[in-house]
Design goal:
This is 34574_t:CDS:1. It is a single chain. This protein has about 90 residues and is an alpha+beta fold. The protein has a single domain, classed as Cytidine Deaminase, domain 2 (3-Layer(aba) Sandwich), CATH 3.40.140.10. About 30% of the residues lie in helices and about 20% in strands. It is built from 2 helices and 3 strands; from the N terminus they run αββαβ. It has a 3-stranded antiparallel β-sheet. A hairpin with a 4-residue loop joins strand 1 and strand 2.
Length: about 90
């Protein structure tokens, strides 16, 4: 395992933050974005995808990893996750 550079950390945060805007969350309205950095230097993003059957939902981290694996990447350096904080009324 190696340490991430500040640029890699910044990019993970930016990509995860941007990705969350594409989340499909009509039930919870809780957007989550994720970004993984493959060992190959490529970043892959994912978002949470909800289903009316709670068990059919998939988290953003899984989506990002599934996208990477479907493109042949199976080794990862880092994972970043971003959401927002809801302030109660």
């Amino acid at each position: 395992m190696r340490e991430l550079t500040s640029e890699e950390i910044k990019k993970l945060v930016e990509l995860a933050s941007t990705a969350k805007e594409f989340a499909y969350c009509p039930y919870s309205n809780f957007r989550v974005g994720a970004a993984v950095l493959g060992e190959n230097g490529i970043y892959y993003t994912g978002v949470n995808v909800e289903n009316s059957s709670y068990g059919g939902a998939i988290c953003a981290e899984r989506v990002a990893i599934i996208k990477a694996v479907s493109e042949g990447q199976k080794k990862f350096v880092a994972l970043g996750v971003c959401t927002y904080v809801r302030v109660p009324n």
